[in-house]
Design goal:
Strand order of the largest sheet: 1-2
Shape: globular
Low-confidence stretches: 330-340
Strand content: under 5%
Number of strands: 2
Largest sheet: 2 strands, antiparallel
Structural class: mainly alpha
């Protein structure tokens, strides 16, 4: 009986994701450091509200990037889709009347439709024409940004209604940002999809071995289309939040978010090779980077230094992951017992 209990404990310990544990440790360490360094600025309701207003914008984009990387691909067009969706929504609201509730609903629906269409374009090029995901989405980023620039002619579209701005700036019960509730809602939906649907299982199987998944009867093209369309939807949702938060739409908002979303996903434990990654790790990674970003602002670090640090951290994390796969995955040498 004792042996079974001991074995059960060992199995539980083995099942714990080390990356998630490390992310928890990093969050705790950062909170402790900032509590000591600037308690009057960090440990305030306004600072925590400020953080929860900020990270849903790039956090929702990162969740779309996560799906694509689990599938063995990548989506470098999330920022372009986000801005284009926001621009389309802003144009519809300005045309129909900024105080028209129906126009706001229609604008949001149109923005989601833009995300679906953009994701379908990426998915078709990658899944049907077999063009590498990096080349397709990098080109698509320029296409979507160019379309947004053609619509706006350069300047931002401003003068949006206060009702629409509530999405990105309002507080539920006067405390919780609506944008945070949107982020939590997206996370819950993704968790249910990845855990309890056939698509979730097929996504991991295709990412791990697309040839084996094809021979097992999985329609890789269908899975690829669904994945990039889902990423497009999440980019569009992020675009609505960004447009609402800033009260305007422009083709070059969030230019640093591409690097940031990539960093979040890799730091969260998603393998660039595909087939591996946990939603919990990515969510914790989003929180880690938001706390670091808040610390930079409170400690008055140069904003340009932040981008350099993100790039440096991305390189280090990839080197660590590559080293772990190369050396940690090597089979151990068998010891041959000598016999007389």
């Amino acid at each position: 009986m004792m042996e079974k209990q001991a074995q059960k404990k060992v199995n539980v310990l083995k099942s714990i994701d080390k990356n998630i544990v490390w992310l928890f440790v990093i969050i705790i360490a950062l909170v402790v450091i900032m509590t000591i360094a600037a308690p009057d600025q960090f440990l305030t309701l306004s600072n925590f509200q400020s953080m929860t207003f900020q990270f849903p914008e790039f956090g929702i984009m990162a969740l779309g990037m996560m799906l694509c990387m689990i599938a063995g691909g990548i989506d470098l067009s999330v920022v372009g889709i986000s801005n284009l969706a926001g621009i389309v929504a802003a144009v519809i609201m300005k045309t129909a009347g900024i105080d028209n509730t129906g126009a706001i609903v229609g604008a949001i629906v149109a923005a989601i439709a833009v995300g679906i269409g953009a994701g379908a374009f990426n998915g078709f090029m990658i899944g049907n024409l077999r063009i590498p995901a990096m080349l397709v989405t990098l080109s698509a980023q320029q296409i979507f940004t160019g379309l947004g620039l053609a619509i706006t002619k350069g300047p931002a579209i401003t003068g949006l209604s206060d009702a629409f701005k509530t999405i990105g700036n309002g507080l539920f019960l006067g405390v919780i940002p609506y944008s945070l509730l949107i982020f939590v809602g997206v996370v819950i939906v993704l968790m249910l999809i990845l855990k309890f649907t056939v698509y979730g299982q097929q996504l991991y199987l295709m990412g791990a071995n697309p040839t084996a998944s094809r021979y097992s009867g999985i329609n890789n093209f269908s899975v690829t289309m669904k994945t990039y369309m889902a990423s497009g939807i999440m980019a569009a949702i992020a675009g609505i939040v960004v447009c609402s938060h800033l009260g305007s739409a422009k083709s070059d908002y969030g230019t640093t978010y591409t690097l940031l979303t990539l960093l979040i996903v890799i730091l969260g434990g998603v393998s660039p090779a595909g087939g591996k990654g946990k939603l919990a790790g990515v969510v914790l990674s989003i929180i880690v980077l938001q706390v670091i970003s808040s610390a930079f602002s409170i400690l008055r670090f140069d904003s340009f230094l932040k981008t350099f640090v993100w790039g440096l951290v991305l390189i280090v994390v990839m080197m660590v992951q590559y080293g772990a796969e190369m050396y940690g995955g090597r089979p151990k040498k068998l010891k041959v017992r000598k016999t007389a």
